[in-house]
Design a protein that fits this description.
alpha+beta, 6-stranded mixed sheet, 4-stranded antiparallel sheet, 34% helix
């Protein structure tokens, strides 16, 4: 199957400093547990292996690598899966800053993976209910309003270009 020349691909945005710091700290945990196991408490091998498996699962199944805009859909790519969001299910796409997002959603609680490479899964919001999210930074979000489904909150690289590509791609 050949690619449509109108297709546009956007990688997941680089991590913001806060998320990068959380990721470094979290990635150090298995190494710390293994060091403790080597120097005395061998039971720490089990939590270290658990974290390695959990982190691998998050990398392969929760953290998307790219967002591809096709004329008829958005495709979200992960290392082990893909998901399509049909264009007709998306009513509006816009860039939101951190303050605008908070004003729009109110108080929020993350449900899913968070801190390690970003936030992936659901975001419960006071005003919008459950929002599906795939974010790697804490500003310049893309909000995709879906009247018949959960809104989608993502952080592609170049969010303004993403919105322009979505708007400019013919149906």
């Amino acid at each position: 199957m050949t690619a449509d020349p109108r297709d546009r691909s956007f990688r997941l945005a680089p991590m913001s400093p806060l998320i990068r710091t959380l990721t470094v700290v979290l990635l150090a945990m298995p190494a710390v547990f293994l060091a403790v196991a080597v120097f005395g408490n061998q039971r720490m091998v089990v939590p270290a292996l658990f974290l390695v498996i959990l982190y691998s699962w998050i990398w392969l199944r929760f953290r998307p690598t790219r967002f591809v805009i096709h004329p008829d859909r958005l495709e979200v790519h992960w290392p082990l899966k893909r998901r399509a969001v049909p264009r007709q299910q998306v009513a509006e796409v816009r860039v939101l800053g951190r303050r605008a997002l908070l004003d729009s959603t109110g108080w929020t609680v993350r449900i899913g993976a968070g801190g390690l490479w970003g936030g992936f899964g659901w975001l419960w919001t006071r005003r919008k209910g459950i929002v599906e999210m795939y974010i790697s930074r804490t500003d310049e979000f893309v909000w995709m309003e879906r009247p018949e489904g959960r809104p989608l909150l993502i952080t592609p690289e170049e969010p303004a270009a993403f919105v322009q590509a979505w708007s400019g791609t013919t149906r």
